UniProtKB/TrEMBL annotation:
Residue ranges of every copy of the Endonuclease NucS C-terminal domain listed in the record: 5-83
GO molecular function: endonuclease activity; nucleic acid binding
Coiled coil: none
A Pfam family hit: NucS_C
Domain of life: Bacteria
Protein name listed in UniProt: Endonuclease NucS C-terminal domain-containing protein
Record InterPro entries: NucS_C, tRNA_endonuc-like_dom_sf
């Protein structure tokens, strides 16, 4: 008798070895499949809560690698045959060998709609029956992430030689901390800006860490003296993790190796590399960021800028309908940059939720630019003579099996009314300063836009067989998208009709902006 069968037969007689209260329904439970190969579950049980429990036993490494394909097939067949809900199906994978499948198991645990548990069993050398068991702990989900911390750090230098030495020191310190996944962007001031004090810089971004991992890194760097707060002093785990990230960066103690240090983040990195003062000289990748063959420089820079959901004002994402996990990430992460504009946030969430329910195959592109303050965005648009500073989003949904594309465009439009704010009048600086302060630090962009005579509008159109329908304004009402009968006008009309007020606004903003 094969050892696998011996283990199975022994567990059938001793189900409580696996879990207390487990009751065997059948050994080698047959599951017919009308559209594929039928299957046999090693042991089908039910637990004390009357859930189905699928038990699969794999002993050899080669067999273990096939485990998750089989067990998911069985779970779906159980769901179909017995009309069971996802919440009523559990899976227990039992193996003597876990080296080959621990990573696949970990990903499955975190992503599966079914509850999954792994058990490692130890066999008696003589009888080959199980003598002890231990639960397999999955690798932490966050350690499988490739995302960057929200905080980055910028080291500034007077010489290129000093910068290279600092990079080598940083590499050594991070090895001591067991931090292996990070990116260093080497920046040089452009020729036109070489007279600046520090013409060389390193922008460093680290992979996200979990709390326990951060604490270990800080301990390895002997950096506990940089921490003066305890976890219970924070309102949330997120706040505490942000604090630990700051402590970790302080614990690197790079001050004596550079000339100045600045805090960094996605939006700041984007402003740095697009502002004309700095140019990227090289990008040095470490760990995960160096070995992924799909990881182009374009994708890397996109993530460093926070466009994957870490930026408060920019998001870009694309996927196909078959990429369900990526679709869920897009749907969730795009909301971060939409928080100052509830109307856009709600309508985009509604569009993606409805799309998620469709059975048609599709390709999706979501591109959002949503600055924190509509007033500041409008000021920079006016002074730079371009609409590129104004809020804008595009959603393209291309249906693969039909010649149809849906297009949603969000832009700023005129209501046909004049601005109400003191900002647009010759008031004293104190009054204007208070308004600018509230615009930038307590933004309520949709109300602010309304009082400016502006509207966050959304246009919808579709292309069928190469013919585009007329664009129409839409709104979300009673949990349905409806065509809007309201009248909105191009932003160019607003500029022409309010030219004197806008000139006054620019003058006022120039006087008080740097006070904020």
């Amino acid at each position: 008798m094969q050892v696998e069968h011996l283990i199975r037969d022994w567990l059938v007689l001793n189900p409580e070895f696996i879990e207390k209260g487990l009751e065997v329904i059948e050994k080698e439970h047959h599951l017919p499949d009308d559209i594929g190969t039928s299957g046999f579950i090693d042991i089908l049980c039910k637990d004390i809560y009357n859930n189905f429990v699928i038990i699969e036993i794999k002993r050899s490494d080669s067999a273990a690698r096939q485990t998750f394909t089989e067990v998911f097939k069985y779970a779906e067949l159980i769901r179909t045959k017995y009309r069971a809900r996802y919440s009523e199906i559990r899976m227990i994978v039992i193996s003597t060998h876990w080296r080959e499948i621990i990573r696949a198991f970990s990903l499955t645990v975190f992503k599966s709609p079914f509850a999954i548990k792994g058990l490692k069993i130890f066999l008696d050398d003589q009888t080959k029956v199980p003598k002890s068991v231990e639960e397999v702990v999955p690798i932490e989900e966050m350690s499988l992430s490739r995302k960057f911390m929200e905080q980055q750090i910028i080291y500034l230098f007077t010489s290129e030689r000093k910068m290279e030495h600092a990079r080598q020191v940083l590499e050594q310190k991070l090895n001591v901390a067991h931090v292996y996944n990070y990116v260093v962007v080497i920046l040089n001031a452009t020729e036109a800006h070489r007279p600046i004090t520090y013409p060389y810089a390193m922008n460093v971004a680290f992979q996200i860490q979990e709390k326990d991992e951060s604490l270990l890194c800080i301990e390895r760097l002997r950096g506990k003296r940089h921490s003066d707060m305890k976890e219970e002093e924070f309102d949330s785990e997120e706040e505490y993790q942000d604090y630990l990230n700051d402590v970790f960066m302080a614990a690197l103690e790079m001050e004596k190796y550079c000339d100045s240090i600045e805090a960094g983040y996605g939006e700041k990195f984007e402003a740095t590399v697009t502002g004309g003062v700095w140019k990227i000289s090289s990008i040095k990748r470490y760990g995960t960021f160096s070995i992924d063959p799909r990881y182009s420089e374009e994708l890397l820079l996109k993530e460093l800028k926070g466009h994957d959901g870490r930026s408060s004002n920019k998001f870009t994402g694309f996927c196909e309908s078959s990429q369900k996990e990526r679709f869920n990430e897009i749907k969730s992460e795009c909301q971060y940059c939409l928080s100052p504009t509830p109307f856009w946030a709600e309508i985009i969430d509604y569009i993606l939720s409805k799309l998620q329910q469709k059975k048609e195959k599709f390709r999706l592109i979501v591109d959002i630019y949503n600055p924190d303050s509509i007033v500041s965005a409008f000021y920079f648009a006016l002074t730079n003579g371009t609409k590129n500073y104004l809020p804008l989003f595009h959603i393209f949904i291309d249906y693969i099996d039909s010649d149809k594309t849906e297009i949603y465009i969000g832009e700023i439009y005129s209501l046909g009314t004049s601005p109400e704010f003191k900002m647009f009048t010759p008031m004293n600086d104190n009054e204007i300063f208070k308004e600018v302060l509230s615009f930038n630090f307590m933004p309520d962009n949709e109300i602010t836009a309304f009082r400016m005579g502006l509207h966050y509008g959304v246009l919808y159109s579709q292309i069928i067989n190469g013919i585009e329908s007329p664009q129409q304004f839409i709104e979300l009402e009673d949990d349905e998208i409806r065509l809007s009968n309201a009248m909105y006008y191009p932003i160019e009309d607003y500029l022409a009709e309010n030219i004197s007020s806008l000139r006054q606004m620019i003058s006022n903003y120039n006087r008080v902006y740097y006070k904020v």
